[in-house]
Amino acid sequence: NGLAIGGVIARADLMDCLRANSISTFGGNPLATAGALASLTYLLEHDLQANAAQLGARLLDGLRAVAAAHPVVGDVRGKGLMIALEFVGPDGEPYPAAATALLEETRARGLLVGKGGLYGNVIRLAPPMTLTRAEAEEALEILTQSIEAVDKEVQAR
């Protein structure tokens, strides 16, 4: 929601050892607190956790099917809507150039993704929990087309 707020959660014996007002991270701001409450209320009322689980499973299944036909994708992993695609070369080693190529392919098709991983060969997907089924299907189509293009390029080398 754009309003900074923080919190601390710990066992009671740890929290009880501190005197009142001895710790604070953006504590006591009524606007941020109201924003956080509104965000949590929306999240619960719209069951966004279930939405993330359902659409994340759809994306993972679809991406795993695409990866099975395209060896440039060495691994597809994730939980909920946090998904990673690991790119490898023909030798199975990390292939950061393929991840960069995919990032550019998806961008050209209208989908922004992240890149990371220890070797820079991992594409990260982290759409918002409010993602719709139509948006997930569109993203999957763009990713499929982009993976096909990158795999074709890698195989031609």
Defining key terms:
single chain; 157 residues; alpha+beta; Aspartate Aminotransferase, domain 1; 4-stranded antiparallel sheet; 4 strands; 50% helix; 13% strand; elongated
Give a description of the structure.
This protein is α+β, with helices and mostly antiparallel strands. The chain folds into two domains: 12-45; 48-156, Alpha-Beta Complex (Aspartate Aminotransferase, domain 1). 50% of the residues lie in helices and 13% in strands. It is built from five helices and four strands, in the order αααββαββα. It has a four-stranded antiparallel beta sheet, covered by helices on one side. Strand 3 (114-116) and strand 4 (122-125) form a beta hairpin. Helix 3 packs parallel to helix 5 (133-156) and helix 4 (96-108) packs across helix 5 (133-156). The longest helix has 24 residues, at 133-156. It is elongated, with a radius of gyration of 20 Å. 22% of the residues are buried. The mean pLDDT is 92.
Task: Walk me through the topology.
Elements lengths: L11 H4 L14 H16 L2 H22 L3 E7 L2 E6 L8 H13 L5 E3 L5 E4 L7 H24 L1
Antiparallel strand pairs: 1-2, 2-4, 3-4
Helix pairs in contact: 3-5, 4-5
